[in-house]
Amino acid sequence: MSTPGVGSDIEDICTRCGDTWHVVMAKVGERVAKVVCKLCGGQHNYRGDQQPAAAGSGSSGSTWGRPRKRRIMRANQTMPAPVVVFDPSKPPRAYSPKDGYMPGERMTHSTFGIGVVSGAPAPGKVEVHFPSGMRTLACAKAVSTLERPVAALDVALPDRPPAPKPSSGNGTGA
To answer: For position 51, what pLDDT does the model report?
Structure first.
């Protein structure tokens, strides 16, 4: 059975995005060695024609067919959000990126609803806890202190380069 040539389509599972359609990138003899994913452009070794080794068979130094240790991602690994104290008697302010906000202040956002400001991670940004989760929003953009250059007025601008100065003398250079 002939294998596809370099540049031909082939099926394999992408290690990055999980897509199955790939293009053959390299071959060693008749064996496909590397493939490129058509969706994400990721390159990896071709594994489609490899068969997992039977349980208990001799080890060849490869991890193919052996179970891999998987990292368990737990939802509670993230740091819990600090509780922000706010005054419920004060009405929430409407969000505007031009306004400044203090921690504990409530705001109303047109998309996310009512939230509480928890802090400022950087200048011009605030972290707000909404019912759908925490969001970082722009706020109180600093006014630029740069000034526009003043246009030169009433200055004669020539429309051609200056004429060369006439040389005085007899051309001997001395």
So the answer is: 47
CA max distance for the chain: 104
What tokens were used for 84?
Answer: 């922000």
Residue 52 corresponds to which tokens in the numbers above? Answer: 């997992």
Of 58 and 168, the one with more pLDDT: 168
Decide if 44 contacts 35 (C-beta within 8 A): yes
Quick one: tokens of 82? 């600090």
Q: Are 107 and 95 in contact (CB under 8 A)?
A: yes
Q: Which residues of 130-140 are buried (b: 16+ CB within 10 A; e: fewer)?
A: beeeeeebebb
Distance of CA 57 to the CA centre of its chain: 45
102: its two tokens: 């203090």
DSSP β-bridge partners for residue 150? none
DSSP label at 77? Answer: G
> Nearest CA to 13 among 59, 52, 56, 47?
47
d(CA 66, CA 165): 87
> Could you give the CA distance from residue 102 to residue 93 in angstroms, rounded to a whole number?
12
CB 23 within 8 A of CB 41: no
Q: Which residue has the tokens 């000034």?
A: 147
The structure tokens listed for 172 are: 């001997």
State if pTM tops 0.85: no
